[in-house]
Amino acid sequence: MVHITRICLRKYGNFVDNLRLYVRGGSGGMGLPRLGGQGGNGGDVWVVAKKNMTLKRIKDKFPQKRFVADAGANSGVRALKGERGADKEILAPVGITVTTDEGDLNVEGDRVMVAKGGSGGSLYSAFQPSKGEAKHIRLDLKLIADMGLVGFPNAGKSSLLTALSNATPQIASYAFTTLKPEIGKLIYDDYKQISVADLPGLIEGAHMNKGMGHKFLKHVERTKQLLFVVDVCGFQLASKTPFRSAFEAVQLLTKELELYKEELLSKPALLVVNKMDLPDAEDKLAELKEQLQNPEEFSDLLPEDMIPQNYLTFRHVVPVSAITGFGISHLKSCIRQSLDEDAALEVKATHREKLQALRNESVLTDSYVKTLNSSKTS
Ligand SMILES: Nc1nc2c(ncn2[C@@H]2O[C@H](COP(=O)(O)OP(=O)(O)OP(=O)(O)O)[C@@H](O)[C@H]2O)c(=O)[nH]1
Ligand SMILES: [Mg+2]
């Protein structure tokens, strides 16, 4: 097993597949008892699905993770019916589940209201407005599998899934055998299950929708981690296309993902070097490892437009042969280790966020009480 440093976080930051947010509807406006005026209702908070949006963007743009709709206007002599407060929209990626602390709230259609605004004060409420609904919600990206296999056609992704799991995907010596994702389950001795998605082969230019293009890349978005698969001896897609070594294949795959959506590269990644049963495989593996340790030095092997902005580093580089079974059980434990590590980090992060939210709330309550006290005395 080769441990190369942590995945490169310089530019991309962590991939975000779930997010906890505080949402509050706007308060209603005061009624006007003297003239029977009615305060405006507070605005509502909505989650709205938007193409190309990511949870990470929400996190970066709104580090406080608080979304409060506007309050309704008070009723006044000039406007007896106070204006309604504006709604607040949280633009979120398509394909998420919205969960509140009270239970599940599955997205139906494209918008879902997550916090209702309070009602304006009126005759029926002795002209007192009500507060907007306040709660924590969680946005979860709908994942198809824990791990997604990423590789060029014929690298042996389907063969690998067969060797690892109970799945029986189609395998053939021609490219594009796999046309839609197939999910295999890896079962461990302690009955833990990990799902791996066999995805169609990626080709150069996929980010421009060549080959299975975007269809493929969409699936990659829906996995927690990436399992790159390359043929240790390299590959050539067709007689007129250039031959690509294993190192070039890794960089080209990275570049395709980067051009499509660079956040994909902040997912933890493992590299499987397949077909270790072929002649000269050991020498080629040694060469690949050396190139991966210092990719900059070998970048002149690639055309300039295929050099990724940041070279991806892998949590594990695992040589295997999907055909003979060499290295498969080791790969299985590397996959487990990598996912377990992230699950532990996630538990810690959620705990920290909950504590922070509690602190924020108590600060707010304190300042609210202070404002109330000062308005009473003045
Ligand atoms: N020698 C050798 N051949 C392999 C190995 N793994 C897969 N192959 C062969 O490589 C060819 C392609 O295998 P697949 O598993 O269909 O490859 P794939 O990556 O799923 O291909 P696409 O679905 O077309 O993207 C088949 O002829 C396999 O028998 C291996 O470990 N050693
Ligand atoms: Mg396949």
Record keyword descriptors for this entry.
elongated; Rossmann fold; GTP-binding protein 10; G_OBG; GTP-bd; Spo0b-associated Gtp-binding Protein, Chain: A; 6 helices; binds magnesium ion; ribosome biogenesis; 378 residues; 14 strands; 21% strand; 5-stranded mixed β-sheet; GTP1_OBG_dom
- The CATH topology of the largest domain is what? Rossmann fold
CATH class of the largest domain: Alpha Beta
Succession of helices and strands: EEHEEEEEEEHEEHEHEHEH
The CATH architecture name of the largest domain reads 3-Layer(aba) Sandwich
Query: What shape does the CA trace take?
Result: elongated
Bound chemical compounds:
guanosine-5'-triphosphate, magnesium ion
Count of spatially separate domains: 2
Strands side by side in the biggest sheet:
10-11-9-12-13-14
Structural class: alpha/beta
Number of strands: 14
Portion of residues within helices: 25-40%
Main β-sheet: number of strands, strand sense, barrel status?
6 strands, mixed
Uncertain residue segments = 1-13
Q: Figure out the total of helices.
A: 6
Domain OBG-type G: 145-340
Family: Belongs to the TRAFAC class OBG-HflX-like GTPase superfamily. OBG GTPase family.
Subcellular location: Nucleus, Nucleolus
Keywords: GTP-binding, Nucleotide-binding, Nucleus, Ribosome biogenesis
